[in-house]
Write a structure and sequence with these properties.
Length: about 425
């Protein structure tokens, strides 16, 4: 009997809800076997599976480049096949009285030739008295900005911009969040969404939280608002207020000494035990215009702020400082802009994307690498122009062709006195259900 129940249950997971209901109509629930099947059906009535895979081929300008268009290339490689993402999402949504959602549970993992990674594990509780609030806790995307929360399955460029990859590496973090999002008609509120959460801070780049500092992250968003019959506007403002425990007395800041931009160390004993700053402020907007052949969309986001990082990196540190190490406090800014245009029909889309990330706004180009300066490659500004084409071949397959032209500012630092040849072409097929 258990084999029969399992077989029918498995078949149910592979069909749509209407087909599953037809299957249940065929079962005699007055008998023991039928009762077992019915209990399984009721329990998993709102269980949903989805999946997407992204096999792709890439070519780079030179061998062994470091890139933000996927993993770095190996030393003797300038072309490769890889499985960029292969993700399965399992989601359960329970409905209570009057068709009100009560609990949502989500689990997503990524499996490819580089390993197995858990991406999402979270639960959400809905408030149904006022139908305004929900609480989410677990491992999920930080509520900051637009591109950070745009799924890799739906994004028009192969990867998020350099800015987002560095500031929000892996996008997810462990924490809890309360959301305001009206689920009934309330004048003036149905286009508003507010998320506020508290998170460990280091994301998924560390095996666990290594200090008591936490990040408070908030976002206020205008959901797509119809300005006219054919034009919709959405926008948002985000803030991240966080810090890292400074467990040594050393702190480095960019100053001018003898006419030279360099890092100057502050080794005051009282620095030890203080919190090094992480403060991000962002704004984004999206304008979508319907036309005869599809849509034109303009999209942009800018982030400015200050963060505590290591000398040769702009990613969030993954462990406490050791020895004579100290945090390097850098002021940064970055942005991206999209122009999206359907051609011929909605199945064909052109993409132009420009982004930049300046990791140290107090240092420029030729100031980096001069004798006596301690500035590093982590202080160099990068800009990227992306040109792409997408063909939505069917509801389950899309083709992406994308060329990323990357520029770094010219410096006096060895290896970066001119533009590094690190352009990347990507050809990707995405399959999903």
């Amino acid at each position: 009997m258990n084999k029969i129940i399992f077989t029918i249950f498995f078949f149910y997971l592979c069909v749509q809800n209407t087909q599953a209901q037809f299957l249940m109509d065929m079962v005699d629930t007055t008998k023991e076997t039928g009762k077992g099947i019915l209990s399984v059906y009721k329990r998993f009535d709102h269980l949903n599976f989805s999946c997407y895979i992204q096999p792709q081929y890439q070519m780079s300008s030179t061998k062994g480049i470091q890139t933000f268009e996927g993993p770095d290339f190996n030393p003797e490689v300038n072309n490769r096949f890889l499985l960029r993402r292969s993700r399965v999402r399992i989601e359960y949504l329970h409905w209570g009285k009057k068709d009100n959602p009560t609990v949502q549970i989500s689990f997503q993992f990524d499996a490819n030739e580089r390993g197995f990674t858990v991406r999402d594990v979270w639960g959400r509780i809905f408030e149904n008295k006022y139908k305004l609030f929900s609480v989410t806790t677990g491992m999920f995307a930080r509520p900051f900005g637009y591109e950070t929360n745009l799924s890799s399955a739906n994004r028009e460029s192969p990867e998020r911009g350099r800015m987002n990859q560095l500031l929000m590496k892996s996008e997810r973090d462990l924490g809890a969040m309360i959301s305001f999002d009206a689920r009934k008609k309330i004048k003036g509120l149905n286009y508003l969404k507010v998320d506020v959460g508290i998170f460990n801070g280091q994301g998924l780049t560390s095996n666990g939280d290594f200090d008591n500092s936490k990040d408070i992250i908030g976002r206020v968003a205008l959901k797509p608002y119809p300005i006219s019959k054919n034009i919709a506007l959405s926008a948002g403002g985000s803030v991240l207020l966080g810090s890292l425990l400074q467990n040594t007395k050393y702190s480095f800041h960019t100053l001018t000494v003898g006419g030279i931009k360099t890092f100057v160390v502050d080794s005051t004993e009282s620095n030890k035990g203080r919190n090094a700053p992480r403060k991000y402020f962002g704004a984004d907007a999206q304008l979508k215009i319907k036309n005869k052949i599809g849509f034109t969309e303009l999209r942009g986001e800018i982030i400015v702020g200050k963060h505590a990082v290591l000398k040769n990196s702009n990613s969030t540190p993954t462990a406490l400082l050791t020895g004579n190490d100290g945090y390097y406090i850098r002021n940064f800014n970055g942005a991206y802009f999209y122009f999206l245009q359907n051609i011929f029909s909605e199945k064909h889309q052109l993409i132009i994307k420009y982004d930049w990330f300046d990791p140290n706004t107090k240092a420029k180009g030729k100031q980096i690498g001069v004798p006596s300066s301690t500035l590093t490659a982590a202080d160099i500004k990068y800009s990227t122009l992306g040109l792409g084409y997408i063909n939505y071949i069917s509801n389950n397959v899309k083709l992406m062709l994308y060329y990323a032209k990357v520029w770094n500012e010219k410096t006096n630092l060895a290896g970066y006195t001119k533009d590094v040849k690190d352009d990347v072409f990507t050809c990707r097929l995405q399959f999903w259900f």
